[in-house]
């Protein structure tokens, strides 16, 4: 996502929230700024909560989760579930897939066109395939 230029500290985040039709509360502005003004990235809710506290943003972990899910609903983020109960929030909402390094918990983007066509089963009646997400699980060469 391109970072917009602006003279006010929250100008980029403010414009982003307005375009997404989200009310620009102080907490949403602060979290949007932390998320989107560093380029494309993958973060957990806990990581973002820690960044917010380090930046003196008074916000609870529950509010961070709620805000992340609001951003997903507005199309600003994508959730990447790597295990039950373990999610990353991806600021790159374009067509792409991921390598997941199991030993470190890191995600790395794979361009969407790097994975060739695969035979998909027909979706259940009354549904259509919206998107295919591929997560390739890798580990370090040492296996540690």
Q: Sketch the topology as an H/E string, one letter per element.
A: HHEHHEEEEE
What is the count of helical runs?
4
Binned strand content:
15-25%
- Overall geometric form: globular
Could you name the ranges where pLDDT drops below 50 across 5 or more consecutive residues?
Answer: 1-9
- Average pLDDT score: 88
CATH superfamily of the largest domain: Winged helix-like DNA-binding domain superfamily/Winged helix DNA-binding domain
CATH domain fold name of the largest domain: Arc Repressor Mutant, subunit A
Task: State the secondary-structure class.
Answer: alpha+beta
The number of distinct β-strands equals 6
Strands of the largest sheet, in order across it?
A: 1-3-2
Rg on CA atoms, Å? 17 Å
Task: Label the CATH architecture of the largest domain.
Answer: Orthogonal Bundle
What does the largest sheet look like? 3 strands, antiparallel
Per CATH, the class of the largest domain reads Mainly Alpha
Q: What's the structural domain tally?
A: 2
Helix percentage: 25-40%
In angstroms, what separates the terminal alpha carbons? 34 Å
Distinctive features:
2 domains; three-stranded mixed β-sheet; alpha+beta; Arc Repressor Mutant, subunit A
Strand and helix map with partners:
Elements: H1 11-19, H2 26-36, E1 42-43, H3 45-54, H4 61-73, E2 78-83, E3 86-90, E4 96-101, E5 106-111, E6 135-138
Parallel strand pairs: 4-6
Antiparallel strand pairs: 1-3, 2-3, 4-5
Helix pairs in contact: 1-2, 3-4
């Amino acid at each position: 996502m391109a970072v917009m230029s602006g003279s006010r500290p929250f100008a980029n985040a403010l414009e982003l929230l307005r375009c997404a039709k989200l009310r620009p509360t102080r907490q949403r502005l602060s979290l949007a700024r932390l998320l989107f003004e560093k380029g494309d990235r993958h973060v957990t809710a806990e990581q973002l909560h820690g960044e917010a506290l380090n930046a003196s943003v008074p916000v609870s972990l529950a509010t961070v989760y709620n805000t992340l899910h609001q951003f997903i609903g507005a199309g600003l983020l994508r959730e990447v579930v790597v295990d039950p109960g373990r999610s990353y929030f991806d600021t790159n909402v374009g067509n792409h897939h991921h390598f997941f390094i199991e030993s470190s918990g890191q995600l790395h983007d794979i361009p969407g066109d790097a994975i060739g066509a695969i035979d998909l089963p027909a979706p259940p009646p009354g549904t259509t395939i919206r998107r295919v997400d591929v997560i390739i699980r890798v580990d370090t060469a040492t296996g540690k």
